Task: inverse folding
């Protein structure tokens, strides 16, 4: 039996949180995982340096979609810096997994990497 | 007599492995095939007894290695109906196609000339041609239609006076479709175009005769036909090899070298710069002997029966959708499918836990996925050592997939 596909992941795959788009977002960025064809678009609305609202849209495997869904919950209320600092360990913890194969890690990291890229771009465009 | 796959499995040591405590069911043969003991032993024998560079030394060992290399060329060439001097050793189908792109198309065709490929191709029969576009060569694609066949109508429409090269895969690595290669070749030749056939998915699985087919160029990979990785072939008619420009420069491919200019060795050496993969050629020759002993027509019959069984079993599963043609006469043992509500990657992960190796994703043929309107597919592909029990394992594991993903639906 596949212990990867436990409750949390299946739940978020089948009933994702914050799926859809944000009108006039501060951050909107898409990326794909070419290996599997996972696609994700991350949206964020910011209040200063804090993420006030986070949504995602896309299609892909259970790992990538559940991970993006969980991320939208986690990132809400976090600072830009804290989101940018999220790493593999945080994502695995969020998913309730101890490890993933290198191929599947890419799926799990798609949402967070995409959002981070968007936030970095947003930061670089902000007047100092 | 039909193949006894159960007995053949014994020739393949890797099939005795277990994964996650389960019997190993290898169903990713379109990606690469496993190797029989005779090929593995031959490789090791080469390095133990015959290792030497070729076409160089005057000592006995070097002569033996050169002899083995050239005998392998003759044997492999004969397997597809060609002459020894018509076979260039390459790394695989990808390098073979790139060789035609650079040494033939780029060197010989004129600005505005068109290369006609198809929507069914592996990326290796699309991207090399795209790389020629900045040099003024044009590129067009024959459309997919029906259940995943190339549209003959569209082919006849797209082929023009400027079409100098027609290139298509003999068998699809996603849809399983077997293309009517000789019919296509005839249309191309009547138009005055040369024909390149990508045989990566055909020469391992059915009798192939390049001359009968009418191919001017034919590309294939050894690792997909029981041979080692890193060796494959480009068959090309002698007159074409004669007029083609060198691919890479270096040792082995020259006759005389001056500081200002050099002259080329005769084909096929002209296209084999540097120390070749001698061990690989010997291993592939051994694989060819193994296939010849089994007879390719029986390999084809075996896979036809397996595909018919797999198609029937898959289609009777709830929520399973199979892609590609249904008629086993017109398809090979490559079956792409999807399970409703389950991403192919998740499917492959669950099957892996059951000891079953299938492929998921785009299979290096994104235009085919685009045509199907899917972002990825699951793919099971068979070879001579697969049998009904392997398909039964696949089907029962699909039940498991549905249990995991279906319980709340
Ligand atoms: C139809 C087809 N053409 C070409 C190739 C490329 O073969 P290789 O990677 O061995 O060069 C493949 C391999 O997947 C294939 O299926």
Result:
């Amino acid at each position: 039996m596949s212990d990867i596909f436990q409750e949390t992941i299946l739940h978020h795959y089948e009933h994702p949180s914050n799926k859809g788009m944000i009108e006039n977002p501060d951050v909107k960025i898409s990326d794909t995982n070419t290996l599997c064809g996972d696609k994700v678009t991350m949206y964020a609305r910011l209040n200063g340096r804090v993420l006030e609202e986070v949504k995602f849209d896309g299609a892909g495997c259970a790992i990538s979609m559940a991970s993006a869904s969980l991320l939208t919950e986690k990132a809400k209320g976090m600072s830009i810096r804290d989101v940018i600092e999220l790493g593999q360990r945080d994502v695995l913890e969020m998913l309730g997994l101890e490890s993933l194969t290198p191929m599947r890690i890419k799926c799990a990291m798609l949402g967070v990497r995409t959002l981070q890229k968007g936030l970095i771009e947003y930061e670089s465009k902000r007047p100092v | 007599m039909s193949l006894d796959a159960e007995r053949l499995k014994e020739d393949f040591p890797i099939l005795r492995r277990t994964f996650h405590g389960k019997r190993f069911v290898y169903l990713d043969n379109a990606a690469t095939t496993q190797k029989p003991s005779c090929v593995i032993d031959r490789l090791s024998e080469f390095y133990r007894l015959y290792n030497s560079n070729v076409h160089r030394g005057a000592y006995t060992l070097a002569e033996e290695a050169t002899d083995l290399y050239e005998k392998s060329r003759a044997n492999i060439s004969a397997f597809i109906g060609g002459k020894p001097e018509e076979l260039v050793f390459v790394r695989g189908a990808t390098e073979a196609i790139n060789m035609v792109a650079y040494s033939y198309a780029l060197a010989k065709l004129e600005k505005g000339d068109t290369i006609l490929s198809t929507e069914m191709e592996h990326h290796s029969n699309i991207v090399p041609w795209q790389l020629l576009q900045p040099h003024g060569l044009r590129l067009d694609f024959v459309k997919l239609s029906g259940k995943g066949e190339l549209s003959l109508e569209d082919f006849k429409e797209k082929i023009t006076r400027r079409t100098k090269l027609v290139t298509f895969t003999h068998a699809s690595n996603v849809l399983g479709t077997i293309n009517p290669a000789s019919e296509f070749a005839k249309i191309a030749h009547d138009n005055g175009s040369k024909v390149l056939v990508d045989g990566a998915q055909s020469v391992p699985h059915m009798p192939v005769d390049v001359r009968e087919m009418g191919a001017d160029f034919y590309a294939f990979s050894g690792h997909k036909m029981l041979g080692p990785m890193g060796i494959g072939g480009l068959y090309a008619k002698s007159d074409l090899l004669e007029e083609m420009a060198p691919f890479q420069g270096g040792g082995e491919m020259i006759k005389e070298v001056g500081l200002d200019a050099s002259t080329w060795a005769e084909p096929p050496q002209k296209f084999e710069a540097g120390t070749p993969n001698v061990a690989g050629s010997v291993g592939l020759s051994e694989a060819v002997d193994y296939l010849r002993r089994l007879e390719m027509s029986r390999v084809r019959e075996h896979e036809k029966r397996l595909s018919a069984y797999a198609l029937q079993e898959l289609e009777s599963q709830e929520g399973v959708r199979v892609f590609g043609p249904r008629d086993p006469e017109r398809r090979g043992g490559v079956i792409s499918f999807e399970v409703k509500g389950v991403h192919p990657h998740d499917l492959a992960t669950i099957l892996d836990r059951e000891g079953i190796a299938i492929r998921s994703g785009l299979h290096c043929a994104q235009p085919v996925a685009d045509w199907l309107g899917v972002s990825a597919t699951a793919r099971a592909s068979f070879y001579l050592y697969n049998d009904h029990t392997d398909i039964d394992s696949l089907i029962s594991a699909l039940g498991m997939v549905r249990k995991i993903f279906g319980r709340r639906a």
Remarks:
- Residues B 30, 92-94, 122, 124, 169, 173, 198, 200-201, 221, 364 surround pyridoxal-5'-phosphate (CB under 6 Å).
- Residues 58 and 67 of chain A are 12 Å apart (CA to CA).
- Chain A touches chain B through 19 residues (CB under 8 Å).
- Chain A has one domain: 3-125.
